[in-house]
Protein 1
Amino acid sequence: MPDSRSPSAWRTWLKPALKLALLAAVAWGLHRTVMSAWEQLEARHWSPSSLRPGWLVAAGALYFLGQLFPGWFWGQVIGELGPRPRRGEAFRAYYIGHLGKYVPGKATVILLRAGLIRGSGASATAATLAVFYETLSTLAVGAGLAAAILIVRFPDRIWLILSAMGLAAVVGGPTLPFVFRRLVKITGVGRLNPSVAKEAGRLGYRTLGLAWLTLPWAWLLMGGSLWATLAAGGYDSPLRIGDQLAICIAATAIATVAGFLSFLPGGLGVREAALFELLIPWFGADAALVSTVLSRVVWLVAELLFSGILYPLGPRRAANGGALPAVQVSDELANHRDTETRS
């Protein structure tokens, strides 16, 4: 009699097919992003010979360092929901998962991160919930920080301050403990993994406070990355360096949140348009356009470079450990049903 626990025939070919489809989707998204950026630069008859390579390297390094903070926080949230992954594994999965944002929809980021973290013992459901919580927390902190910077440094920019506060409320509302618990209940996570749904109640104000203490550093570094791209293009502003950095931090946060809410792959087009409009008053049209496009390219190159470095460093997995999250979640649901049947 065949073993009921053995993989079914459809899963034998489905997993490789899904992985190839995922790889193709990411490659297509990356190609689309690069071509769009290059077309925008060509429209301005911009020449790469005017670049300062050292500043581009600095911009990429600052962006990479900025991702350490949300990557660490994501691992902490997973630990609140179940087994805590090692920091290195969590950061590796978090960083490589960025490549999924260039694919239409938000699911690819979840697939990549949950699949890569699976070997640490964390469930796909916990990793998925942590993606939502960390993403919204990071964006809310960014918008809140932008509002605070504008209030202190540029109090006359009322519409910008109100916009940043509104964005912070939109993306930050779901991270409030009582709202998040309600969302977990509505989405039916308890049917997929009752233990994770129960532990979601632990994501309270302590976790929220940890986000607001930790994640501002990510935005400070990413704003510094944008400022470095301005320096790479040889552009300057009559403003003091401190004010320039403040503008870059606030603009980066507001534009990133706007891009996320557009639901376009990587916020492509929306993020650039917002960043361009936010930088023009202080740096001029040419500097705003070139730095906006360059920052997109620099961040993409940094993601590709460090993902290529980090991916081979992952732990070896057994055959079942490399399953895609969609298959993992179905396994969790099937296991839960088996438990209910036996009881």
Protein 2
Amino acid sequence: MTEPAQLHDELLEINEALVLGSLRQHELTEAANALNVQLQTEIAERKRVESALRESEDRYRNLFAAVPIAVFVCDRNAVIQHYNYCAAELLGPDLVFGGGRDCGSLTLYLPDGTLLPSGQNPMIEVLRTGTPALNVEVLIERPDGSRLPVLLKSVALKNAVGEITGAINSLVDITERKQADERQRLLTYELAHRGNNLLAVVQSIASQTLSGTRSIAEARDVLMHRLHALARSQSALLTEGFEGASVTEIIRLEFEGFSEKVTAVGHDVILKRMAAQTFTLLIHELATNAVKYGALSRPEGRIDMRWSIVGAGAEARFKFQWQERDGPPVVPPTRQGFGSVLINKAAAQDFGTSPTIKFEPEGFSYEIDAPMSVVGGNQRASTSRT
């Protein structure tokens, strides 16, 4: 082969190699571009996932912090890793979260006050067995030594292969619920006690009313009026939640039909329950006697009632005055019926002092001067006029 022909063949081979190289480079560029697009897509997806993960973690942290109960997370060795504000407030940061303290260091008691051994700590048991502890009632000792009733919940945390890695625990303060239960128990007992007392009062009223010389019809009428007076005392007590009753309300309920003939002026004194009940029956007996024999038996007759609190503190006294005017001539009773016994003896027993009773020409009068420590409930500083 001549030299020019050989050179020509070599040039052709070189040119073919260059063309093939160019094609290969183009293929590689396209592959690189495709890989770059895929990489950018993967980067964008990774950023989206990371952003979503951060948002999820932020929501978890906010929820963890804001939940209104004590929540804390411990690791496999019971060492507390995370906690919220309520947990720190409830248990005290120095006790629980200072220096890697663990759940087993919390002092727990049974509801009856018996110390719970550390080996029976429900949170430790969850870490050992994986079985959740739900609504376990215990007393937990706070840093100041006080004990708080709580409902304990503990649930194990596990990894992908089911191994226990820790636990999430919560403590719900049930102090208010326990107090409400105790109040309910006391109210139930008090209701039964008051019911028994009320039945005893009814029995006494019935026995005394029916034991005299009245006819059946008259005794029945008197008994019904006295029972109505007792019912009014319960209405007055109901206004104050059965802790006491207002003198103003007791008098108003008794004299609704005699407002033009009765003057009643005084502070809005609250009497204790037993004193209020006796005072209601007392006012009813005084009113009944006034209607039958005294000032209210005549058109021109009048009754003036005044009461007040004199003094303060341990020296305070409740003073009540009943004065009848313009009635018939005053005549002392010739026999001692239930009304007389109530006006004299029952008042002395429940008011801690004997009443002053006068049968004077200007009219019958009745006065009570009793220690507020014996008869008084919570007071309202106001003056009432009926």
Protein 3
Amino acid sequence: MARSKELGIKALAAVHFYVNELDRFRRFWVDQLDFAFVAASTDEQQAQTGMRTEVYEAGRARYVVSQSVDPSSEAGRWMVRHPDGVGELIFEVDDVQTTYRVLESRGAAMVNEVASIESGGGTWSSFSIATAFGDTLFTFVQNNGFSDPVPYASRFGTPKGGSNRFRFDEIDHVTSNFLTLQPLVLWCKEVMGFEEYWGIEFHTRDYAQKVGHTGSGLRSAVMWDPHSGVKFANNEPLQPYFFKSQIYTFVEDNHGPGVQHTALTIEDIVGTVGAMRQKGVEFMPTPGTYYDMLPERLEADAIEIEEDMDILRKREILVDGEGPGKYLLQIFAKDFAQLFDNPNGGPFFLEIIQRKGDRGFGGGNFRALFESIERNQVQTGRV
């Protein structure tokens, strides 16, 4: 039996943000991306948790957002140390007691014991552990017919707004940045029982010389739970110019390591990116040289795509793939600090991805994203 299977993880159930201003997050998820606003904390729940919480859903993707109303709350303690960011990842498991025993036996730092809450004839049983993902906690939940998406937000009878017009499906993976990767990799293996899925390293010195700066590099290791398919892409800066790396800059902006982005799968990225832009979503720009070189790169990898190259160029969508008949399309939104025009918005951003047979991470696009972030950081004076 795979060691990860012992935990019984079924899925990444939710990503939980702690934020300074909840309303601007609602505008992003609901007004711009057309997520449904499905739940909110009651006055009683806010008094119990010290947080005002809302929940947004599209397909199987769920984002929970909490703003502190009490400085001693989880969100309040987070905001003392960080800008807006991901403070908790919530996983649904088969048997929460088994998950607890396995993690405890592997030396996990348990935050609390299993506790159960009843609502609507169902039960939510959960516990949390501290992690190697900075201050981000992992919470494990066994949901037996619990009526609300989380215990601290009550589901509306009818969702408010949002029809998922862009056809988002699920959270494909979570990407995090660190100053050193090996402790994280060892923790994922020894405590979580995850396995290595993919990796890459590169440096942008050759590209950087063309635009007048030093460039930087990264090393990435993707860890995964083969039982559930949950994937974590993890990055560290690569020398030389360690302190100029955009990975290092993220850690500075986030005031520590943490989640850089989550990737949302989508049914038709080409047909919907334009509509997202019309709703005010801003994406990281892709230079024309990327598309000048793309046909040669696709031919070298024997990848044939169905999409029109001119349309991809116009909409600045990236393409990568594993080989014949297998490729992916993706695009990256600007980080929340830029989208909200507020440094407290934090360096987190959203990836949108359409997989067409490719289950990997696109080595070519990994570098294209890195260069795009780097260009943006140079333009804004952050490196």
